[in-house]
Amino acid sequence: MKDTHQRAAELHRLAAHAHEVAAQHHGKEDHLSGHELSKQAMEHSRKAWEHAQEAHKKSESSVKK
Fold this sequence. Notes:
Elements: H1 2-27, H2 31-64
Helix pairs in contact: 1-2
């Protein structure tokens, strides 16, 4: 269960970093790179959400036992 929470947190950090880098590229009017980085950030965010949901379910299961 701890591994799932750690992986979710790692993916959230990756997503945040990718969003920051994408914003920097957009700010420099490098929209193509910014767009690709935004897509990457969204994928990290999606994976982070999935891992967070899995961690939440595992947490609920362990509490009910």
